[in-house]
């Protein structure tokens, strides 16, 4: 029986998952998103076109492969409809290709309002969420109050909705939060009808039956390990398990059915929203990374905070996920750098450690190893042999430190700007 390969982010999201899923899709029969929701923005570029996917898996552009929105995902019917209609306009009709899990939870209009209300209540301690209702929807799931895609087929759909809305309204009243969702609600009811034209499936059977039939499955994660609700920089995290275990729960795959675990990282670090970031750069170098790397959120347009690669954090992420192959993105952004720095340990309250600490909020000072920059254009390279020696030394060092091979190196946003080893 085949196994499921998993692709997931090792940092704070936006590592380039969308691009790599698209590149790898020709090797698979099924691509399945396992968690997150429209807080994700996965960018794909090919043939001069650029697409940003939020709920729809990144395997839809490579020859009609089956794509699944898994049970671990939270789905906003309004945003999903917009996304699907945009794609249909550009000639991609997904109704045959895309299936939705009955177990995926629905983001209701009041979940979005609750997200905003909770953020407002936190004041300066806010998480800096994407405002898409992610936290409140997962909260309802865990507290056993959620609404699922499968409920669309229930005669009690309206009653389930009304009960959820009433609960949310009571909370919003207690928070003294002003809002009006009349228009949004109307749009939502139309959008849930739109969902019904897609295959609504038991995705755990779909995926396991595919494996039994010797089909290959790629599981696509959203966000990144350092935003995981259990292992990220809590409470400045998202509300789902972004780690490999999330692929098991999000798709209904047994742990022993996981095959390769592809861990994606940028050759530097970025973070959107609040929360600690030990290697963050507040100087000209940080601004240069942002400018050359176009580090602005694909969903919210917010500036991404930028900093040096953090091997302490990367090794932690590799451990939690059991990463078997590394994929390095965006080293081309540092083409002109004279020196490239990598954090190899932290000093926590003056004591050096290579273990990612419980709290990285204060007293963490990164200790850096410096590399001579490669100072040439990596974007032109298509084979590993073409890379300059200085760059190869940097890659070798990452492999030695992590003990995991760097198998794919991305040198630009386009599908073709990819070097396989
Ligand atoms: P995701 O959320 O992990 O799919 O990543 P995003 O799409 O949010 O952010 C990655 C950004 O980097 C997108 O704008 C991509 O087009 C771009 N990108 C991906 N790989 C590379 C690369 O190797 N080099 C450069 N310069 N840009 C890249
Ligand atoms: P992709 O899949 C980067 C961040 C938000 C915020 C925190 C919680 O494109 O890598 P949420 O709306 O999830 O409750 O916000 O998580 N965040 C992301 N940052 N990439 C993402 O997704 C993100 N999804 C959420 O900025 O700090
Ligand atoms: Mg993104």
| Succession of helices and strands | EHEEEEEHEEHHHHEHEHEEHEHEEEEHEE
Report the bound ligands by name, code or SMILES: guanosine-5'-diphosphate, 6-O-phosphoryl inosine monophosphate, magnesium ion
Q: Order of strands in the sheet with the most strands?
A: 9-7-5-2-10-1-11-14-18-19
Give the helix/strand class: alpha/beta
Biggest sheet character:
10 strands, mixed
Number of β-strand runs: 19
How widely separated are the two ends? 26 Å
DSSP helix fraction: 25-40%
Overall 3D shape: globular
Can you walk me through this structure?
There is one protein chain. The chain is α/β, with parallel strands linked by helices. The chain has eleven helices and 19 strands. The strands form four sheets. The chain has a ten-stranded mixed beta sheet, sandwiched between helices. The chain is globular and about 65 Å long. The two termini are 26 Å apart. The model has no long low-confidence stretch (mean pLDDT 97). Bound molecules: guanosine-5'-diphosphate (GDP), 6-O-phosphoryl inosine monophosphate (IMO) and magnesium ion. The site of 6-O-phosphoryl inosine monophosphate (IMO) has 24 residues, from helix 4. 6-O-phosphoryl inosine monophosphate (IMO) binds next to helix 4.
